Amino acid sequence: MLNKRGGILPDDYGLSLTVFAQDATNVAPIKAGTPMKLANTGAYHAVRCADGDVIQLVAKHGVSDPDAPLGVHAYGYSRNNEFPYTGTIAVGDSVVANASGGVKKASAANGSYVALVNTSKQTVEVLLP
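RE: above sequence
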């Protein structure tokens, strides 16, 4: 199997995440293989891609409830990490390093993406390119 050429790579390669598909319903469930994108509506929120959207995620399995965990493959990001933060920061922001060993909101988008803000711990979970 290791010397197979081409094809889909095993799940061990790339970044996989658990998200919550905000547009999943019983009438219109998310199916395995659905192209998706991150949504700035909350921590680890995702929605189906609309016509012309860049694909950021692909669903690994189906869900029909926005509160059900959905496993996805993430594209364009290589790692996720938790950092302490300073200042005001929100889901969807890009970050840069601050002088105290953490991060702060970037003045311009840079490919990083804040996926979760934990105000009680003063940490953020960031997807990194």
